[in-house]
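Q: Joint fold for the lines below.
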Amino acid sequence: MGRLDDAIRSYSEALDLAPDSAHNWSNLGLAQHESGQYSDAEHSLRTALSLDPGLAMAHHNLAWLLQRQHRVDEAIASYRSAARHMPGSAQSHYNLGTLLEQKDNVDEARSHYRAALDASPTFIPAHRALADLALRTVPLWHVPMMNDVARNRAYQNALNRAVRPGSVVFEIGTGSGLLAMMAARYGAETVVTCEADQIVAQAATEVIRSNGYSATVQVVPKHSQEMVVGEHLPRSPDVFVSEIFSSELLGEHVLSSIEDAKRRLLSPQTQVIPQSANIMIALVGGDALCDNLFVADVCEFDLRAFNAIVPKRQPLVREDLPVQLLSDPLAAFSFDFQSQASWPGETKIFDIPVTGDGKCVGILQWIRLQLDDEVAFENAPTSRAGSSSWTRSIYLFPEPTSLYRRDVVRVLAAHNRNCPWFIVEDLTRLSDQ
Amino acid sequence: MGRLDDAIRSYSEALDLAPDSAHNWSNLGLAQHESGQYSDAEHSLRTALSLDPGLAMAHHNLAWLLQRQHRVDEAIASYRSAARHMPGSAQSHYNLGTLLEQKDNVDEARSHYRAALDASPTFIPAHRALADLALRTVPLWHVPMMNDVARNRAYQNALNRAVRPGSVVFEIGTGSGLLAMMAARYGAETVVTCEADQIVAQAATEVIRSNGYSATVQVVPKHSQEMVVGEHLPRSPDVFVSEIFSSELLGEHVLSSIEDAKRRLLSPQTQVIPQSANIMIALVGGDALCDNLFVADVCEFDLRAFNAIVPKRQPLVREDLPVQLLSDPLAAFSFDFQSQASWPGETKIFDIPVTGDGKCVGILQWIRLQLDDEVAFENAPTSRAGSSSWTRSIYLFPEPTSLYRRDVVRVLAAHNRNCPWFIVEDLTRLSDQ
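A: Joint structure:
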């Protein structure tokens, strides 16, 4: 503290001699900020800027002072001034980017992170922020999904059957443009595909151009709810295709997007791909899953009390672990996209018969898409484990529980249109154990 | 809009007849809010509350209005009033929890999510918020780490050698209490272990109690920087142990925590476990990694343009994928915790000789801990793949690149004490290709 007081005193003395020195006011403001005198600091920095409106360091220091006080909009304005007067300041661009991200202004945040790296190529926080932003645009499952042969073949077969020469095809969620190009290949006259993420839309446009489909496939960089027939679509489409389903099926506002499309954009004759979808569940266990999700005896200590604080729902990221299904798969929720127009939230109770003996960790959840009358596709744990891009989720029991054939587990299942949830209500021992 | 206008008109007319009806003012305020008349809405809701300060619905609706306007502190106060007057409102508790989380008040947020579930056991958003909070407290790697036999054995061996009867042992990061109990088992007189997360500290205290070590092991629910010798520690410890290393080694402010402990709490005689650590890298490739990280030709379309937007750093979550190392492992950064007192940021350049032919996806990063002179532990990709709790990271090349033995890759490596980063600068073809 002593050093800061000394600094404040010496800058003040310097200002007695040269009261018009913007630099001295700026330095005084910084020292006042560091010693916690926020309002004095703000006054000093604003005085500096009134004397020299182009003093970039004072803009930056004022912005940092405002940021510390959670005055986000004012801080953004000051960082903008700092970056304008001092474009080589990686720190100004980076701090501005983080605040813009807080305000969900992702595109501008990205460009300031890039400006930070232009100014300083080894500025690690900007590298990291760009990677984190890219991870929101292209999550870890995205590339494996594009390389998922079974998924691609299923959509290809369904589109091959549905699309006829002259068809108009509408897609929500362009991604790489793969499904849209398939529709074009099978003879569609016009394919309109909308993509809410600007960065993905740009990449898809480039992919489509480089494959020679720009004349047929049009990428509209908008959310589906902004699409209008007559403006973006020539007419109601013959085929509607979408693959915006999350691992829980219901993420990304999929139900409200499809409801809106059916109400405003599709006709009763439009073929919807997938025609229906299910949220699937089964009781699941096995030693490998137990060790991945729960602790018991470790080095002759009993760590079980720690199990009380593990998350009650977890993505099963370790696709290599063997899983043991302890019940038949069950379609907990069904969504008929072809025939129905809306899908309200639901709550159900299931009595699930146990089909084998084993240590159960909880309820496994995956999804199933029925693309048309002939092709279905699911990331069931028994089929193609390790090769699907959708992650399965586990809803955990409080502790691993030994189940035996003919026991019955009562499960409360609910979804609120955005997320499913599963809770074990009761266990009835009908086995001989 | 017409319906809202009608509602506003009819509530206004009702208020002409009964101007003291708090309910009518509240309903009018809600309708005004929904039609976008924010300041009229606020006036109506505040009038309702001045007439009936206990009208919970008006508190809730005012809170929601304030939340929509990003007036977070005011919204929190109003939700608190709503929850107090209407404890059965799951939505009030839940909304309050989300705002408290925004303000990093995690403990109170958690208790309001729980109150939401007490009020409504199937209120899915609260289940989900609690699981997400728990995931921050106990990340996916935590349970596998506790069950990581090789890690546990390494720490057990090192503690067995270091701890003597009468030792004072200090640990940063209690976790489940496992390492602290090991130290107690090997004869420590006092083990003091600090844990910044309150929920983890409580669980560890229960684990330690149930194993009968409460007399020896004391969990202090504080950040290490709040610990004081004479208050929390009887004296400078004989042994200092910590396992707060992230997958990149440097997360969780590990360097500043150890620097602070060495400056204030340890003595030159204190044995530090681990005595040193490395951030390890190697060039990495293989077909499975290529398909997981990049797209190429899919269904006879060329999707390569999409590779421009994939994240430049990714955790390698698929531990089952075979990886091919294309260089010898390299200790990019070393941290001598026993002998040094501080570790500033570093920037280095490495010329890495390619040791085999293959398609390279980028730079793989893992960590290595040297616990004492005898025991080391690392999550190298060649050893124990699939069984470590630390995730390896990949810093991606722009595209998969064919490398051949004797090529040289120039890598820029930097860390800023919180995060490492690696960038390929140049490729020199010394192979015959």
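Q: Anything notable?
A: The two ends of chain A are 71 Å apart (CA to CA). Chain A has three domains: 2-137, 142-273, 276-428.
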